[in-house]
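Instructor's aside before we start: the two examples that follow are unrelated to each other. I chose them only because their records fit on one page, so don't look for a connection. First example below.
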Amino acid sequence: MGDLSDIFKPFVADTVTYDDNLFRRSSNVNAVMPSGFVKDDVMNQATVGSAINYTLGRQKFNLNMSVSDNRFVNNQSMDNVSTNDRAVWQWQLGRQLSGMLAMLLPAPWGGFTNTTFFGLDMITGNNPFANLNYTWHPRWKVRTGLSWQDFRHSASQRKILNQEYATALASVDYTTPSGNSTGLQYTFINGKYPNRELIADVPVDNKYRQHNISTLLTWNMTEKTRFNGNVGYTIRNYPDFSQRDFGGETFNLTLSWTPTPKTLLALSGWHQLASWPDVTTNYQTTKGFSLSPMWRPSPKLALTAKFSRQTLGYAVAIGIPRHDTILNGQVSLVYTPVTNAGITLGYQAGTRDTNRLLLDYAFNSGFSSVMLKF
């Protein structure tokens, strides 16, 4: 039987968004909208869901479920219902063994930022994963993990992007008496695309294997400054198409500064491989930085922002490599009048410059949302 922390928390939310370039179309005069579609739109997303948290001794069980009704004013053929479900068991055995078993079931609708597809495409994901932590010494910990990810597209034109991959990782971490930590991590990914890609009328198998070894660091530099991240080397091999092989340094670093109890500033930089499930059967190398300030003038009010710049390089089969430069900015005002209610107002803008014709874009978007928890 659970203790007093066992809770059932249903919620409802509604978000209204205006976007002046929903399909991320180029401003070039030749970028004509297909018949039946409108460039700008207002979308309403009504969501209901619940969170169930149950504690039994040292075991914690979490179940989160939500369903959203997404409606468009101008592009009504895009109306859809999306879901996002998650089940987690956080287990502990004695003082040394702990871990997690989980199942994630996202089913969102595919966006248009990185595709020229017009139409509704629902992406169904299946992501079971498990990890094990062994604290064999108060300052030493060994971690292992396994996961499986499977993404399926509903639109027949985009089933070529269906992908699945398995990930395994192992790491060892050391924590100092002052609370800093360092470690070494190895990650292996075995990925494949069930539907072969046609290149010059030749079917190509895009299966790949990826290896990464990284050093991990968390450093509390002062009471107000924290540095954490990883630096390593990544190798990705395509057994049937070696022209796409990659080998190089990768990193993800963040410096956080809390000058006062009401303010926070985070600066991040990265150079990584990305393989988004709704973009391409290849990978992208992404290099960039972001700046994320936050100011909380009162316990009920918070102002957040994020500004980022990144460059993307695409692994192409033939021809001139594609390169993008993406700028994004967002500001949000969050008001929490009571513990179980929140109101958010926000504005977002972005641009993409690219060496590919008709793939540049610029957009402006405003949104407001209300959430009630019961």
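Example two begins here.
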Amino acid sequence: MPGGGLCAIIPPAIFREAFVLKLNLVHTVAFSGIVLFAGYGLRKFIKPLARYNIPAPVVGGLVVPMVGAFFIDFTNALIITVFLNIFK
């Protein structure tokens, strides 16, 4: 089977659309506010961030990709496990 693997079973378009967040203006502003306040909270909780003058938007902005990467890795592991169990 050319191509093989999971992409031969599920079209690649599904993978591209699976992890896309589509936000309108209000949702974007609300999400950025949550990220900003998360950054302020982390700066208070982790003292070296405040001591080295790391801005709260940077701290909050770094957390978002790390959490997203965790969920993508978890989802990929789940998908692979399910398909390996289906096609034993």
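The two ends are 17 Å apart (CA to CA).
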